[in-house]
């Protein structure tokens, strides 16, 4: 009901509560202080159900028609239903009623006011009335739920008390002539009173019309016109519109004396909550409303540029999401016709994460269509470059390309462990040499190489060298195996030149050269993104010995070989 402003309680943020005057059902009457210290009275209505809201609107219609002198404002909006009343000068009607002599003008004016109040279902007792001069003025009107007939019956007792005592007639020339119509009026009143008493004591009996299925207002008018009193009760029926009569008691066709009470049950099912339809398509909104027992109402198409809403999506709705309404009621929606702007731009996205950059691109009305990866020392998943460039104006919906940083080198997922070393080379032990036998001549005589007289030939004896036997005292150090003849292989200079395919698989690539001396690295580990479609070549010639081959490895596994 109220808000807080410091330690003061406020009504609707502008009326400071001084004190509470009364509380009647769901209506609280408070004395308040308005602007510049003016004192007013505020009747606050606690509206929590559709029935409460309907009753307040009926009250507002009545007070606007009656135009009470004390009424200054009537407010009706969600969360704030109240009427503001101001003090009215004059003599209270209760004081006038106990006076022994009352002016005829005052009595007639009060009767006319009673008739006006009864039309709207109010009795004189429901109003605070003061009399200024001869005019009765309404200072405050309390809510009431009565039929015009019930209000008229209540006014009878008040008007009888008002007519008690002496009524001073109007002083006009020829006033004596007024006795004649007065007598006629009195005689007619007596006659009508007798007839009314006869009708009240012996009312006619007639058949009650069936009003089931009709609107409550139409059904009430028909029954009241037939002379019956009507009261309402609420019910629920799925096949009838809101406000239609579900049943009546007594039922239609029953014989009932005129003036009796007929109870009408009005279709008023429990309120349902309006779902959120914003950003849905029209098809999705229809399905959501159907699930909530509601219907799609008027569809308005508006420009979605200000809200950046795509074409065909809901921008707003009436009633708002979460509002309470009756089942079957329509919900109006506004649907976007699309973003009509022609040009847009994006800021500098460098350094942002990919997700942050994507959100900026979407907010500008553009679309990320391509993401490139580049090895970098910047944090992974951060933006390095963008196309279009920052602050360049482009058409709405244009594509955007982002270059995102990746790690330069990805370590293997599993450790390769220590490589086995070959055992130290130990040469075989040499056998001990045996003493050579003394050479003999072919004929078995003499020493070879001597000249035998008579044969004409001179033979030179061989030089005999005694071998030295060496026994190793410790294993010699390992030396390269030269059994294959690698020691004397020639050296040459070769160059590496290779064009990597455009569809090179992802991974880390290295290049080594293998010759008679083993393997040496030519290209350090490089990501596939940098090598796709590129030509790699060594800056300087590589010196090799013997046959050489370049080996390209992907993540440690052999990918290709190149022979220089």
TrEMBL record:
Please list the residue ranges that the record marks as compositionally biased, kind Low complexity.
Answer: 441-472
* Superkingdom of origin: Bacteria
Residues forming the PASTA domain are 202-267, 268-337, 341-406
User: What PROSITE patterns does the record point to?
Assistant: PASTA
Q: What is this protein called?
A: PASTA domain-containing protein
SMART domains hit by this protein: PASTA
Q: Mind telling me which Pfam families this protein's record contains?
A: PASTA
Keywords from the named record: Membrane, Transmembrane, Transmembrane helix
Looking at the record, which segments are called Disordered? 410-488
Spans traversing the lipid bilayer: 175-194
Q: Please give the InterPro entries that the UniProt record associates with this protein.
A: PASTA_dom (IPR005543)
């Amino acid at each position: 009901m109220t808000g807080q402003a410091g330690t003061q309680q406020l009504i609707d943020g502008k009326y400071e509560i001084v004190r509470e005057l009364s509380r009647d059902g769901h209506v609280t009457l408070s004395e308040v202080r308005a602007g510049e210290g003016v004192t007013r009275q505020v009747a606050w209505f606690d509206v929590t159900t559709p029935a409460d809201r309907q009753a307040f609107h009926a009250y507002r219609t009545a007070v606007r028609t009656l135009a009470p002198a004390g009424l200054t404002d009537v407010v009706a909006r969600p969360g704030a239903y109240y009427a503001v009343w101001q003090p009215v000068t004059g003599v209270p009607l209760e004081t006038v009623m106990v006076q022994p002599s009352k002016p005829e003008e005052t009595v007639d004016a009060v009767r006319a006011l009673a008739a006006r109040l009864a039309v709207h279902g109010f009795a004189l007792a429901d109003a605070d009335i003061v009399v200024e001069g001869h005019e009765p003025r309404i200072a405050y009107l309390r809510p009431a739920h009565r039929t015009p007939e019930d209000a008229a019956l209540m006014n009878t007792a008040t008007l009888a008390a008002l007519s008690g005592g002496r009524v001073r007639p109007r002083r006009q020339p020829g006033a004596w002539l007024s006795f004649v119509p007065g007598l006629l009026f009195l005689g007619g009143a007596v006659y009508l009173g007798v007839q009314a008493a006869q009708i009240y004591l012996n009312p006619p009996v007639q058949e009650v019309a069936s009003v089931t299925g009709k609107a409550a207002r139409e059904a009430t008018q028909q029954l009241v016109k037939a002379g019956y009193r009507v009261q309402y009760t609420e019910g629920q029926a799925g096949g009838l519109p809101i406000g239609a009569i579900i049943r009546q008691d007594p039922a239609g066709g029953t014989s009932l004396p005129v003036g009796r009470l007929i109870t009408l049950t009005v279709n008023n099912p429990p309120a349902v909550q309006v779902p959120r339809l914003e950003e849905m398509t029209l098809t999705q909104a229809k399905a959501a409303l159907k699930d909530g027992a509601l219907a799609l109402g008027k569809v308005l198409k508006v420009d979605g540029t200000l809200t950046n809403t795509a074409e065909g999506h809901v921008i707003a709705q009436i009633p708002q999401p979460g509002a309470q309404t009756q089942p079957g009621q329509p919900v109006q929606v506004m649907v976007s016709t699309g973003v009509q702007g022609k040009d847009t731009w994006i800021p500098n996205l460098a350094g942002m994460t990919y997700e942050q950059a994507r959100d900026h691109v979407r907010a500008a009305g553009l679309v990320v269509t391509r993401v490139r990866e580049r090895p970098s020392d910047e944090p992974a998943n951060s933006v390095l470059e963008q196309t279009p460039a920052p602050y360049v104006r482009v058409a709405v919906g244009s594509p955007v390309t982002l270059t995102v940083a990746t790690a330069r080198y990805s370590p293997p997922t599993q450790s390769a462990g220590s490589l086995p070393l070959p055992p130290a080379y130990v040469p075989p032990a040499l056998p001990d040499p045996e003493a050579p036998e003394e050479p003999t001549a072919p004929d078995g005589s003499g020493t070879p190489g001597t000249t035998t007289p008579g044969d004409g030939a001179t033979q030179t004896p061989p030089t005999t060298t005694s071998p030295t036997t060496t026994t190793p005292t410790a294993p010699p150090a390992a030396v390269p195996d030269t059994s294959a003849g690698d020691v004397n292989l020639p050296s040459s200079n070769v160059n590496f030149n290779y064009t990597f395919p455009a569809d090179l698989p992802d991974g880390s690539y290295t290049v080594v050269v293998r010759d008679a001396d083993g393997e040496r690295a030519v290209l350090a580990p490089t990501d596939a993104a940098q090598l796709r479609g590129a030509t790699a070549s060594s800056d300087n010639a590589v010196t090799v010995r013997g046959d050489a081959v370049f080996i390209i490895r992907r993540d440690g596994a052999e990918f290709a070989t190149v022979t220089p």
